[in-house]
Amino acid sequence: MLLAGVAWLGLDGISAYLNVIPRYTDRAKAYVIINACAIFVRAASTIVYVLVLDTGIAGVLYGHMTGTVLAIVSNIILSRRYLGITFSVKDSRLIFNYAILLMPGVIITALWVPTIRKAIEDIFSVAIVGQFAMAASITSLATMFKSALMNAWRPLLFERRNDPAFFGEVRRNSSTVAFVILALSCFLTLFSYEICLIIGTEEFVQSMVFIPFLCMVGYLQAVTQLRGFGPLITDHTYVDSLVALLSYAVGLGFLISAGTRLGLFGIGIAIVLYELVYYVVLYRYTLVKIRDFCTSLIARSEYFVLALFIVCGVVAMLHAPLAVRIAVGGALLVTLLHVNARHYHILTKIKVSA
Fold first, then answer.
1. How far apart are CA 332 and CA 329, in angstroms?
2. At what angle do helices 264-289 and 237-262 cross, to 10 degrees?
3. How many angstroms separate the CA atoms of 206 and 134, rounded?
4. What is the share, in percent, of the chain residues with pLDDT greater than 70?
5. What CA–CA distance (Å, rounded) separates 262 from 256?
6. 23 versus 311: which is more confidently predicted?
């Protein structure tokens, strides 16, 4: 199990490195296709490993590794003319000094998902792990979105971190990204029961409980990428590792202490707590470091859309009739279009980009 986790961590690092190349070669479509295929293979193979081959929690890691290997091979084929072997002592020293204190946080982050799934298996059952994997597959679009965001965002962050006007753009762009994720999550949550039936079977309907929580996880991961960059631009990478350790302890501690009493909701709260602590601490740290340029990176309209998402989660968890949820969805669509027209103008931006 440990060896599989370490192997996946290494493969994921190689995949992340190769995924950066399309950003500089203007091959966004190829990037999307490769990652979409990798995510599909990851989700499908995880279900096969866990439910068909009965490999237990290790099957989750095998599934992730299968999708990651596909991404690596595809990116090597796509970018083979840019790959070569070089070595610079100066660059190696700079990379080592920057990364050595960041590595514990990276390892903790990589171990979080396998740990939480192992804890679910021990506290509940392998069947619940399968339910969780099913819900993760349904919300896996957020994984691709987060990966694409990270690959495009990180280079831009380091290129423009000394530009005072950049932080105003961060506020606008991060709130726009949050709006898109939350808006999609509202509908995904509202109709989670029907989606589970369409994609899975009656046995997987219980997966709908996890969907709102996993949507929130995707939202928090995205805004953490966009707003929690303080330790990275100040070279205080040890802060990121300490926050990752704190988040790990809070999330796992909650699941162990309260998970059995709250049931599946306890699992959902635990995975959200991990991301929430990580986001809040890094965001507050970032604000302290950029206080001379910006006092907030969150638009007020984002809180309103977040409240709409919570309402959708409550409606879904109360098992409201389909007619009621359709009515709520219609009202939600009108409201979101109004919010977009007033604050974000996403459709206009798409037309201009086209």
1. 5
2. 160
3. 10
4. 87
5. 11
6. 311
Distance, in Å, from the CA atom of 100 to the CA atom of 115, rounded to the nearest integer, reads: 23
Mind listing the pLDDT tens digit for each residue in 121-164? 888 888 888 888 888 877 876 665 666 566 567 667 777 777 87
**Higher pLDDT, residue 140 or 233:** 233
Residue 291, token pair as written in the block: 């206080």
State the sign of the Cα–Cα–Cα–Cα dihedral 262, 267, 269, 273: positive
DSSP letters, 328-346, are HHHHHHHHHHHHIIIII-H
Residue 166 is encoded by which pair of tokens? 């950049």
> Could you report the per-residue pLDDT of 243-277, keeping only the tens digit for each?
999 999 999 999 998 877 888 899 999 999 999 99
| 202-224 mean pLDDT | 89
- DSSP for 229-287 reads -HHHHTT-HHHHHHHHHHHHHHHHHHHHHHHHHHTHHHHHHHHHHHHHHHHHHHHHHHH
Q: What is the pTM of this model?
A: 0.78
Q: Where are the beta strands (DSSP E) in the chain?
A: none
Residue of 93, 65, 71 whose CA lies nearest to 16: 71
Place of tokens 């069947």: 127
Q: What is the DSSP letter of 50?
A: I
The HSE-up count of residue 104 (CA atoms within 13 Å, CB side) is 12
- Outline where 191-236 has alpha helix (H): 192-199, 210-227, 230-233
Q: Please tell me what DSSP assigns to residue 207.
A: G
CA–CA separation, 192 vs 316, rounded Å? 7
d(CA 111, CA 123): 18
